[in-house]
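Entry:
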Amino acid sequence: MEHFIAAIGDRPLDAYTKTDARAYKSMLLKLPANWVKFSELQGLPLDKASTKAQELGMEPMTESNVNKLLGFVGSFWTWASDQYDEAPANPFKGLKIKQRKRIREERDPFSVEELRAIFSAPIYTGCASLREWKRPGAFVPRNSGMFWVPLLSLFTGARMGEIIQLYVEDVRQEDGITFLDLNDNGEDKRLKTTYSQRSIPIHASILDKGFMDHVALCRSQGQKRLFPDLAMGEDGYYSTPFSKHFSRFLRAIGIKNRKNAFHSFRHSFEDACRDSDIPKEIMDALQGHGQEGMSERYGRGYYLKKLDEAMKRFQYRDLDLSHLNVLAQKSERP
């Protein structure tokens, strides 16, 4: 809103027009993502930064990002209309870019080669320390979220924030099945939709890598959160700092591009489900996709067994991560 006001002007709410909204949109279309972090643009108001970015030939932000920013500013008019009868029409209504690609195509799944690179990085094979995770060494941070969060997403399809916010008590057992209970039972927890509350049986590959040893350590230490080393961002989301770390991680191992990010694990999981002949309705239940009746049907009890049966079939073809199994590891220094 500050950027919008600085570029368009500070006026009464009913004085803004479609022309103003289109002008703001035009500026956004010329700016790179996170433009305030570029040294060439720092300190410039939105309109001048937009002009300079175009002159420098900077790669503009994606259409999805433009739409998000339009939505952020336009949401103020939406709020006003809910609160006041005399609120003016939203000048941003109808201005979002019609996506030329399906949402599924905005992010690519990780390729097998990229997954091998990720799980062969020093964090997984030995780094100098948790702080110096880029530098090879003898330390494998098995009790850090940096180690577990990507692995859990790879074998659950869960979103980054859903994993990082887990409590120790969310690792549960019923009928001999160990599973993650994804819920919003906590002041620092949130879920994307009502369908996101779900149970995901823990894959044998995760257990082989010593996940329950980490859970047991957290319990013995009286920890509330499963990954207390991953702090919440200033915006109230655990995912914000880790998202930045993971982008740095992908760049450090040389595989970062415009169409991959942490969310690519979710797409990789979907592809592996299809390749493992897991029915779509069960895949949707595991991932928390919205389908009427599915949230209730695939909750716990008998249907937890159905989900567990599917997870027993789940596999990534041509991806061998056995070097991360506990029995395969050399002794680690604390």
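The first strand starts at residue 171 and ends at 174.
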